């Protein structure tokens, strides 16, 4: 019988080094944390009608307190390496984060296989400016270079043409369209696209 104090051959996930800040040419990505609730709430409220058809978590306008509670839950999940949620900001001339543009992250991880899924949303006033593609490229580098990913996916409702275009622009291959593989926001089954990249 092993002793709880005996070092494991595989270190616990909580000890895995995952950066809490990433940067690219125009963006700063920061892991979810306490205090982000007000900025995230403003972005969600601004973009509610555009997000509601695709995001199950965006079916009712949240209060600032609701958004702050979610931030704290996401921060805890990040520290436990259960869900790596980030928010991306316009990078200022001084390199510091400016206006919050949207949310993103590596989700539904399989740490044994090293498979990750990229998810994202962007506020309405920041759409069509290439920010999402830049963010996807930065998260892809994190996955492949630092987390040694063997497989990286983007999954989306087959009707979500904007999300599909992001995957295709960033070198993800459409592997399959699965019939009735996910529930839409109305609770009805819809088709799901699976895009993937490899090292």
TrEMBL record:
Residues 49-191 form the N-acetyltransferase domain. Its EC number is 2.-.-.-. Gene3D superfamilies: 3.40.630.30. PROSITE patterns: GNAT (PS51186). It is an enzyme of class 2 (transferase). Keywords: Transferase. One of its GO terms (molecular function) is transferase activity. Pfam families: Acetyltransf_3. The keyword Transferase applies. PANTHER family: ACETYLTRANSFERASE, RIBOSOMAL-PROTEIN-SERINE ACETYLTRANSFERASE. This is GNAT family protein. It comes from Roseateles subflavus.
């Amino acid at each position: 019988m092993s002793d709880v104090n005996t070092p494991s051959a595989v270190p616990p996930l909580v000890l895995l080094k995952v950066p809490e800040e990433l940067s690219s040419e125009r963006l700063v990505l920061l892991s979810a944390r306490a205090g982000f609730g007000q900025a995230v709430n403003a972005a969600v409220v601004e973009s509610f009608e555009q997000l509601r058809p695709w995001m199950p978590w965006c079916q009712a306008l949240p209060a600032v307190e609701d958004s702050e509670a979610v931030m704290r839950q996401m921060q805890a999940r990040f520290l436990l390496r259960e869900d790596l949620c980030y928010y991306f900001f316009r990078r200022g001339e001084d390199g510091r984060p400016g206006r919050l543009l949207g949310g993103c992250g590596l989700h539904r991880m399989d740490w044994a296989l090293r498979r990750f899924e990229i998810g994202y949303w962007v506020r309405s006033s920041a759409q069509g400016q290439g920010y999402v593609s830049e963010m996807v490229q930065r998260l892809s580098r994190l996955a492949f270079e630092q987390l040694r990913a063997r497989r990286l996916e983007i999954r989306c409702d087959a009707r979500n043409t904007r999300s599909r275009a992001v995957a295709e622009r960033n070198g993800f291959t459409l592997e399959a369209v699965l019939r009735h593989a996910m529930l839409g926001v109305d609770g009805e089954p819809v088709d799901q696209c699976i895009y993937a990249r490899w090292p």
